Amino acid sequence: MAVRACGLIIFRRLQSAPPSKVTDGIEYLLLQTSYGTHHWTPPKGHVDPGEDDLQTAFRETQEEAGLQASQLTLIEGYKKELHYPVRGKPKTVIYWLAEVKDCNTAIKLSEEHQAFRWLKLEDACKFAEYEDMQATLKEVHQFLCSKE
After folding, report:
1. φ and ψ of 20, to 5 deg
2. Using the 8-state DSSP alphabet, how is residue 128 labeled?
3. 96 touches 79 (CB < 8 A)
4. Which end of the chain is more exposed for a tag (fewer CB within 10 A), N or C?
5. Where are the beta strands (DSSP E) in 34-88?
6. CB contact set of 58 (below 8 Å; sequence gap of 6+)
7. Which residue(s) pair with 72 in the sheet?
8. pLDDT tens digit string along 94-104?
């Protein structure tokens, strides 16, 4: 049985971006783990018994980044499922896309993470060392560009 985790890819739009290039003003939230290789990742975590996947994504985001569901707008039409092995066991991670309503909302980390950054796509891809996460961030960016 695969380990199952869910999370949100969170972005904000900077007000300073020129209107013609709205997607240039998009930054993605990545958290640096305080364990293992200290990799950078969107907030995510394991599904608790009795919880549905989206509930897990919102709960984990609140626990790991201090963001309440009411501070986020879930972006319709985007959902990504990643499959990869962790310590020899299969893992499934499902991500949805959410925008912070106020780009100045404070991030409050749990002890699971030691740092956070808001990053433009290119930098987010450098920080997210795993190829499937880099591809997912690029896909999200294309999705957002296509909605402009």
Report:
1. -70, -20
2. -
3. yes
4. N
5. 40-41, 44-46, 72-86
6. 8, 69, 72
7. 100
8. 999 999 999 99
Q: Encoding tokens for residue 15?
A: 């007000």
Instruction: Mark the ranges of the chain whose per-residue pLDDT is less than 50.
Output: none
Q: What count of other Cβ atoms lies within 10 Å of the Cβ of residue 47?
A: 19
Q: CA-CA distance, 94 to 71, in Å (whole number)?
A: 21
Residues pairing with 103 in the sheet: none
Task: Look at strands 26-33 and 113-119 and give their pairing.
Answer: antiparallel
φ and ψ at residue 9, rounded to 5 degrees: -90, 115
Measured distance CA(68)–CA(77) in Å, rounded: 21
User: pTM of the prediction?
Assistant: 0.92
- Cα–Cα separations (whole angstroms), residue 139 to 83, 104, 107: 16, 25, 24
Rounded to 10 degrees, the C-alpha dihedral 37/134/127/73 comes to -110
Percentage, residues of the chain above pLDDT 90? 81
For the domain 3-147, what is the CATH code?
A: 3.90.79.10
Domain residue extents for the chain: 3-147
